[in-house]
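Q: Here's a chain of 393 amino acids. Please give me its 3D structure as tokens.
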Amino acid sequence: MANTPNPSASPPFWRDERVLKILAQIAFAVAVLFFGSLLLQNMVTGLRQQGTTLGIGFLKNTAGFDLAETLNHYTRSSSYWQAFLAGLYNTLLVSIVGIVLSTILGIILGVARLSGNALVRGLATLYLELMRNLSLLVFLIFWYLGVFLKLPLVKEAIIWPGDIILTNRGIGLPWGLPTDTWPAYKLFLIGGLVLALGLTLLFRWQGKRTGKSPLAIVWAPLAFLLVAGVGWLVLPSAPLSLDLPAVQGLNLKGGRVFTPEFMALVSGLVLYTAAFIGEVVRAGIQAVSKGQSEAARALGLSSFQALRLVIFPQALQVIVPPLTSQYLNLAKNSSLAIAVGYPDLFYVSNTILNQSGRAVEMIALVMGTYLLLSLVTSIFMNWYNARVRLVER
């Protein structure tokens, strides 16, 4: 009787597909570590020949250069590390403001792209097609040189209603300065935020229970403003004093002055990124079955209610993943600030690199910081995507 193979017998390990996959991964990891260590050793040898070693101790040295605008306390006598933080804060400011404004504008453009009004739809289409085919770097330079630097000189400043001053040295806005009652007023602001958050959660719970959710995006801000207004009135003096901008010599003093570099970078990033977000929103809305719109109208919902309660929540699961990519692109594109002279992370790091000669350390710090920002953004958006994803059986 001939021997027949036993189907339940395990194959030898050199023919086991699972073992081979693990061995292949181990071999790849070893190869990466080997070449990585080889490159690192080669780099360290080269640095030693130049009389330097790897390290970040130089960040304690005095920077010795000025920055046009910072959010932290920074002077020429501050250290390289404080200068690096100033650039990081500026990058975070541009990224957060840019993400918020481009999201608002993008949603408006995406909905307008599907409007039944031919003029609105045509204008939105023209804007989206125009912006999507522009080079961002060229657009930023044009926006900076052709718009903000072409504003009048300080002595010929344009003054809009509300004491808004437009000049080629910056845009001055009225701003509030904290007074003695500001610490107490912050408690009212925190209370307003807690109340707004509570109302949002309550409305969501009511919406799930009854199928009719109040417009939390309207009532929550109103509740916050109500608490803030009450706090303003009950305190013995106003928590903020209004500081108006004014022309003094060749500069603007008082209020809050936004430099042309900041305005050009933020507005350019917002106008450019909003075009891509608009397309993402349009694609998400069109991905929802037409029957959902018809069912919403059959229930007596208006077009806005159908969009808010039926279509947009379903479209979010299509919108959020590509929207994350646009947020990451905006954060990374903020490094183009160097083209318009805004002191962001890359601009400041480049200055530190030129002064200290520490190219490896500074490039590694910049890459690691951008990587960390991208990871934080991705983690938050993935969490939000999991929240809005439809649960299927």
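Q: Can you summarize the key feature?
A: The radius of gyration is 28 Å.
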